């Protein structure tokens, strides 16, 4: 990313259990260094891979090639959604998740945004939270911000449809008490 400075932190905690980071950072304010993940996280979700940067053997991790733009294919978006669902489940279970890419700004921000929407955060709040906690340079790819907003709309519709279907099944099977007027 031309003109965007390297981050000074290996990773940043966005919310409890959700971290966002890259593969390089500025160590002690002067030296470019590799970010090596050991066992700090229960799950590492990465859209960039570099030999020797971890995580340690035995730590769950998922890796996929996702470009930094300008656009993603439907299959790539589906991969981000799948990673986000797994990340949200892990955070919901009290585990630590690292969303990771090369610089720790855009692709990891996209994934963190998708995870946050699955945890109930509105898209715009997610974007602002990511920028506040990671860097003002995070999500400088406007297309990725648009994807987070689109994902929020799609995920909300899907969640509402699943809820409505579940309530109908409960009604149909008699497992949902309904007021007398609704019978």
Explain how this protein is built.
The chain contains four helices and seven strands. A five-stranded mixed beta sheet has the order 1-2-7-5-6. It has a two-stranded antiparallel ribbon with strand order 3-4. The longest helix has 31 residues, at 142-172. It has helices at residues 74-92, 107-118, 123-133, 142-172, and strands at 11-15, 18-21, 24-27, 31-34, 43-46, 60-63, 97-100. It has 183 residues and is an alpha/beta fold. The protein has a single domain, classed as Protein tyrosine phosphatase superfamily (Protein-Tyrosine Phosphatase, Chain A), CATH 3.90.190. A hairpin with a 3-residue loop joins strand 3 and strand 4 (31-34).
Largest sheet: spatial strand order: 1-2-7-5-6
The oligomeric state is: single chain
Major β-sheet annotation: 5 strands, mixed
Can you say what the CATH homologous superfamily is?
Protein tyrosine phosphatase superfamily
Q: From the alpha carbons, calculate the radius of gyration and give it in angstroms.
A: 19 Å
Structural class: alpha/beta
Q: What CATH architecture would you give?
A: Alpha-Beta Complex
Q: Number of domains in the coordinates?
A: 1
């Amino acid at each position: 990313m031309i003109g965007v400075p390297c981050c000074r932190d290996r990773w940043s905690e966005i919310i409890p259990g959700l971290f966002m980071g890259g593969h390089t950072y500025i160590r002690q304010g002067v030296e470019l260094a590799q970010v090596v993940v050991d066992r700090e996280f229960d799950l590492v979700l990465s859209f960039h891979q570099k030999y020797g940067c971890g995580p340690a053997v035995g730590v769950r991790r998922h890796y996929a090639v996702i470009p930094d733009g300008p656009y993603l294919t439907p299959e790539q978006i589906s991969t981000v959604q799948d990673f986000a669902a797994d990340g949200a489940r892990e955070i919901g279970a009290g585990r630590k998740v690292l969303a990771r890419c090369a610089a720790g700004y855009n692709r990891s921000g996209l994934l963190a945004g998708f995870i946050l929407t699955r945890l109930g955060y509105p898209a715009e709040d997610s974007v602002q939270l990511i920028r506040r906690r990671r860097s003002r340079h995070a999500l400088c790819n406007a297309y990725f911000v648009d994807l987070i907003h689109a994902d929020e709309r799609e995920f909300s519709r899907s969640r509402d449809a699943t809820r409505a279907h579940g309530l109908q099944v409960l009604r149909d099977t008699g497992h949902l008490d309904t007021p007398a007027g609704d019978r």
